[in-house]
Amino acid sequence: MFNIQSRSPMYDPNAVQHMRDELVAVGFTELLTPEEVEKAIKVNDDKTTLVMINSVCGCAAGSARPGISLALQNDVIPDKLFTGFAGQDRDAVDKIRELVGNLPASSPSFALFKNGELVHFMHRHEIEGRMPEEISEYWGPIFNQKCSNKGPSITPEQFAQILHAKSCGSKIPLYNG
After folding, report:
1. Among this protein's residues, is 59 annotated catalytic?
2. Is 109 a domain residue?
3. pTM for the structure as a whole
4. What is the pLDDT of residues 45-71, one digit of tens each?
5. Given 43, 59, 119, 172, the catalytic residue
6. Is residue 1 part of a domain?
């Protein structure tokens, strides 16, 4: 759920909870504050950290979440998995974007870090129009080359039970809290 100490979310938190749960189910940890982002990414431990900026966008995020979930069934995966939700965890996502560097803001998107440095980035325009299987196929070779953690993130049986959320962002109610 969102952090009540930060800026208010743009969308009704209950309406997007299933989009959060989808990533948590495959091993992602939510980053809710800028401090959590710093502690997760700015680490010099020779491990890889994948961060997804989640989004309500039905077209891109509706493929990105199941695509990265499928990619995490690979034999080699990042050591750590984190996510921040654009328009929800606003301060945390601002910090993620700061650490990504000079790339344009993008949601959904994926950033792979090692020792606090960005080593690969997948922008929204690289996600749009792709099926989940294509996103998974894109990430598999990157994981094989840049990561060393043994996959999958969850068992195939657990993966088969996940329900993937695909909703049009324009149909999600704004938060009036």
Report:
1. yes
2. yes
3. 0.90
4. 999 999 999 998 767 888 999 999 999
5. 59
6. no
